[in-house]
Specification:
Layout lengths: L7 E3 L3 H11 L5 H19 L6 E6 L4 E6 L4 E7 L6 H7 L4 E2 L1 E6 L6 E7 L8 E5 L2 E2 L3 H12 L4 E9 L1 H10 L4 E7 L2 E2 L5 E2 L5 H6 L3
Parallel strand pairs: 1-11, 4-5, 4-6, 4-8, 8-10, 9-10, 10-11
Antiparallel strand pairs: 2-3, 6-7, 12-13
Helix pairs in contact: 1-2, 2-3
Length: about 210
């Protein structure tokens, strides 16, 4: 069992819970599903970036000089393909100067283990706070593998943002990476025999891109 559940942050904001409820509904169409993912990612992303480092900067208002705060341009957003792409635009609204990397993984249908097929990251990724994006945290295998790929490239500051997860996925990630903070919109009950989240919302990638 994972002991460091202080690294798990479950959002209890009423707007997030309302939008997740709409996201779960089987009759939600592709357009609305995509918009809801964007809105939820924006709200969770706000919380996930709460502790970004800031530096003092001197500015001049119309009335006087003062000292304000500035976030250094040191963030890399990294969606896990393909469903993570649905969260990128929202995060770029919050952090327009962020760079964007991509990690492509698919889950072997027999073993449920992650298989890498693509990884493209900024050359200075090791100097950045990396925010990994994926709507679903199911078995945790893909998320844990993606984080391992980042650490192999020298990244030391990593956060994970998901819309829905289950205890199994959280445990898998935190057992392998106890230094990573996980931000969840909702913690669901369990996985079914096909490693889908219950009650969940179905396949997030298919619903985002209309490939049902």
């Amino acid at each position: 069992m994972v002991e460091n559940f202080a690294k798990l942050h479950i959002m209890d904001h009423p707007l997030i819970q309302h939008k997740i409820t709409m996201l779960r509904m089987k009759d939600t169409n592709t357009k609305d599903f995509r918009q809801l993912v964007n809105e939820i990612a924006l709200l969770i992303g706000y919380e996930a970036t709460r502790d970004l480092p800031v530096e003092d900067i001197e500015i001049e208002t119309p009335l006087m000089k003062t000292v304000g705060k500035k976030c250094p341009k040191q963030v890399c957003l990294t969606p896990i393909l393909r469903a993570g792409l649905g969260m990128v635009d929202a995060m770029l609204e919050l952090i327009p100067a962020a760079k964007v990397g991509h990690i492509g993984l698919y889950r072997d249908p027999k073993t449920f283990e992650p298989v890498e097929y693509y990884c493209k990251l900024p050359p200075d990724v090791a100097e950045r706070t990396v925010i990994v994006l994926d709507p679903m945290l199911a078995t945790g295998g893909s998320a844990s593998a993606a984080i391992s790929f980042l650490k192999q490239r020298g990244v030391s500051k990593i956060k994970m943002v998901n819309i829905i997860g289950v205890p199994k996925g959280v445990e898998t990630v935190l057992e392998a990476h106890p230094d990573v903070d996980i931000y969840l919109g909702a913690l669901d009950e369990r996985l079914n025999d096909h490693a889908y989240i219950l009650p969940g919302l179905g396949d997030a990638g298919d619903r985002l891109f209309g490939t049902l």
